[in-house]
Amino acid sequence: MNNRFLDKAKKVIKDPKMLAIVSAKRARQLALGAKPLSYCNSDNAIDVALLEIAEGKVTGDFGAEITEAAAEEVPAQG
Asked: Which of 4, 18, 38, 40 is 20 to 30 Å apart from 29, CA to CA?
């Protein structure tokens, strides 16, 4: 995990528990094939998720923060 991304993400989502939940959920989406919303030189899904949070592209309101196009990229579980 990139500590620089983590520090920036902490400024956007101040509650550590919420940051952990949001970043984990977004990292899971990315791992399952969702399109990244930010360019990141790391292949680590948690780094990409933290960068997206730091840039304001993913928020604590997890139901509304990801664009429709990105949400459609996530394959159905089953």
From this structure: 4
Domain, as residue range, for 11: 3-69
Length of the chain: 78
Tell me how far apart the alpha carbons of residues 26 and 53 are, in angstroms, rounded to a whole number. Answer: 9
Determine whether 30 is exposed, middle or buried from the number of CB atoms within 10 Å of its CB (0-12, 13-18, 19+).
buried
pTM of the predicted model as reported, rounded to 2 decimal places: 0.76
Q: Is residue 23 part of a domain?
A: yes
- How many separate domains does the chain show? 1
Residues 10-67: tens digit of each pLDDT: 999 999 999 999 999 999 999 999 999 989 888 899 999 999 999 999 887 654 445 4
Which residues 6+ apart lie within 8 Å of 78 measured at CB?
none
